[in-house]
Predict the 3D structure of the following.
Amino acid sequence: MPTQKTLAMERFFDEVGDMHVVIQSPFGSRLNRAWGLALRKRFCRTFNFELQAAANEDSIVISLGSIHSSPLQEVFAYLQSASVEDVLVQALLDAPMFEVRWRWNATRSLAIQRNRNGKRVPPQFQRIDAEDLVAHIFLIR
């Protein structure tokens, strides 16, 4: 996990009064998106509330409500290197785009059938097959 020395963190309130936490991170969009997803999952579990998070090349922004507040130093303790992989897997499985991309990739790799007995498989059955495949793969881990 990144240390506090490589990151700058700040928070600000917008005109509506909602708090936003910004983590300035020099690790690029791929790592920032993954770290942002995992942090978002931890924030959601901590506050029992769905939050918004965004990441780009040099920062992660987590949008909190006006009633959600915690000391900034606690954010560094939300993710531990021993559990970050499990948290990230759970965050990815909950991400809305994951299901669509998973189904598309599984179909293209021929793990999901498009045709059975010479007939086209309806999309709802392909969706069920893709969900079964996700459950099978992630339960084996």
